[in-house]
Amino acid sequence: MLALLTRAPTRMRVNFTIVCLFLAATMIFGGASRPDVQSLPVVRLTAIAMIAIAAVQIDREQWRAMRLRFLFLLAIAAVVAVQLIPLPPQTWASLPGRSFYVEAMTAAGVGDVWRPLSLTPDLTLNTLLAVLPPLATILALGTIDRAFDRLFVPLLLIVIAMNAIVGLLQVASNGLYFYSITNEGAAVGFFSNRNHFAVLLAIGFPCLACWASLPHPDPAFRRLRRWLALCAAAAIFPILLATGSRAGLILGVIAALISIGIAVGSRRVRADGAPRPRRRISLLALLPFAVGVVAILATIMLSRDAALHRLLEGSEAEHRAQFLPIYVQMVRDFFPVGSGFGSFDSVFRAYEPASSMIAEYLNHAHNDLAQILIEGGLPAGILLVSFLFWFVVRSVGLWFRSIRTPADLIGRTGSAVVLLLLLSSLVDYPLRTPWMAVLTAIACGWMSARRDPPRDEKIIEKDGVGSHSGLR
After folding, report:
1. Cα distance between residue 126 and residue 140, in whole Å
2. Using an 8 Å Cβ cutoff, are 412 and 403 in contact?
3. Residues 374/379/380/384 CA torsion (nearest 10 deg)
4. What residues contact 434, with CB distance under 8 A and at least 6 apart?
5. C-alpha distances out from residue 168 to 185, 433, 440, Å
6. SS3 state of residue 355
7. What is the full DSSP assignment across 96-128?
8. Cβ-contact 411, 444 below 8 angstroms
9. Is the pTM of this model over 0.90?
10. CA–CA separation, 157 and 159 (whole Å)
11. Tens of pLDDT, residues 45-102
């Protein structure tokens, strides 16, 4: 893989370095979704700089490769921006779900003024600015050759490892937290939320399987890489237990099963292009799994298995599940225009029954698909269905054909990453975090890569360096 960097043109190496710096800044400063987090301006200003740098370099071929993802994000931005357009008083009052607020303003003696569609325009503006990091990611990846996709896999693993190390230090010292509002006492890494950190750890499974399966001309290096991947995978589950995230623990099991499919499917072709012979599984190969089991048992004995305790208790999950009928009612009341992006917290307070009130408040629905429909209405629902349709069609194409090239392998990994984030979105809100939004943009880029033509497949399998389109 280092040969790819050394053989690339100087301009390509510079662009790759800039993209890596942008991703590093997003990872360090983009671990929270609250609009009052002081690090968000750093992330967004960095994204604006990245957009400016990339925009002057994109050529026609690169634009064709990324235009679908770019236009989709622009459509999202347009739906959010429309909610900020001021409307005449009578028009605003006639919108679905506004009668309660009209009565409240009349009782307060507030005169007729033009108001935007959103009930919380300041938070809607914050949502519009949140589009900047993934938009910058799409443009940034467009400035470098698709051959560099395989370099982002080990870089992502480094990011996961850094988060894991920080998470372990947090559990050991009960400190080293980067945000004032966070899950203190649990491992959260560079995030403020343990669930988001746990999802990132779960994503490590398919990424490890992909990294271990990428072709390389040196058989000894391939064996070493597989052993390192197995040992790293064995260490993930104990850290997941320390996060205290029940959803993360379940996603970790799902991700481990998916990674087996990635690893098994990639063993059809060797680095020299010859078919792989069938080999029996050595008992020694089970050693990393044995280490993982021992580590999990040690974690439980040391009372660091917060995720397992919370999974067995289940009281919090049951408490949130009872809100689903309320979410459905909120969707109906504000359909088809929605209440405005970022308004869930304010709107939900008018719906929450007194019998279910607790000391904690819901800043999000912990079901992002429902919250999108509540806040965005029909336009957001159309975009959501469109994305899910594209994801299913693309994933079927990636998973129901044999893996013959690195593009196939990385594309299947991208599909696994997006699936895990979508599953997490059913019980949480990971995509509202800048780093997770950027990671989703990267994974969708992996899924969008064209399959390598036969001529380049031979180059890849022989030297492990070529790409689906070659270095331009």
Report:
1. 22
2. yes
3. 130
4. 26, 29, 30, 31, 33, 40, 43, 130, 133
5. 11, 21, 25
6. helix
7. TT-HHHHHHHHHTTPPP--EESSSSHHHHHHHH
8. no
9. no
10. 5
11. 999 999 999 999 888 888 888 989 999 999 999 999 999 999 999 999 999 999 888 8
Tens of pLDDT, residue by residue over 19-28, are 999 999 999 9
Alpha-carbon distance of 283 to 257, in angstroms, equals 20
On the question of a cis peptide bond just before residue 336, with omega within 30 degrees of 0, the verdict is yes
Cα separation, 273 vs 457, in Å, equals 9
Answer for the pair 81, 129: CB distance below 8 angstroms, yes or no: no
SS3 state of residue 366:
coil
Question: Which of 163-167, 261-265, 394-398, 465-469 bottoms out in mean pLDDT, i.e. has the lowest?
Answer: 465-469
- CA 363 – CA 374 distance, rounded (Å): 14
Spell out the residues 6+ positions from residue 401 whose beta carbon is closer than 8 angstroms to its own: 408
* Rounded Cα–Cα distance for residues 51 and 28 (Å): 19
Geometric angle at alpha carbon 232, from 226 and 235, rounded to 5°: 145
Alpha carbons 213 and 263: distance in angstroms, whole number: 6
Tokens standing for 308?
Answer: 């397992």
Report the distance separating Cα 449 and Cα 468, nearest Å. 8
What backbone torsions phi and psi does residue 131 show, to the nearest 5 degrees?
-75, -20
Asked if residues 50 and 23 have their Cβ atoms less than 8 Å apart, the reply is: no
Which residues, in sequence order, are bridge partners of residue 275?
269
DSSP 8-class letter at 180: S
